[in-house]
Design a protein that fits this description.
single chain; 107 residues; mainly beta; four-stranded mixed β-sheet; three-stranded mixed β-sheet; 9 strands; 43% strand; globular
Length: 107
């Protein structure tokens, strides 16, 4: 009906006492190929999700013990996702091939 306003999801949630709906973060992709993370350095916003996809024939991992980040072994064509929850830098490696290094910068 015209003349009546329609409440948005956020306004409805607030009116019902529910926490506001947070917008979904932006997706990012890191490709594991040629024994490298590409890009090696990725800048994201808090709330964004990063997906690593293993395009190598060898298994790899995304590992940062200090940040409690561990993908487990990713076989060829497997992927793993991580959502940035707070600002900061996370240096990570492939646990199976420690010469492979990457950095997540969450702003």
């Amino acid at each position: 009906m015209r003349g009546k306003s329609i409440l948005s999801a956020a306004a409805l949630a607030a009116a019902l006492g529910a926490p506001p709906v947070q917008p979904a973060g932006k997706p990012h992709t890191v490709t594991i190929e040629g024994m490298k993370f590409a890009p090696e350095r990725i800048e994201v916003a808090v709330g964004d999700t990063i997906t690593w996809i293993n395009k190598d024939f060898l298994p790899h991992s995304v590992t940062a013990p200090a940040a409690r980040l561990e993908s487990g072994d990713l076989a060829s064509n497997q992927s793993w996702k991580f959502s940035a929850r707070k600002k900061g830098e996370i240096d990570y490696i492939c646990r199976l091939h420690p010469v492979m290094r990457g950095v997540i910068v969450a702003k």
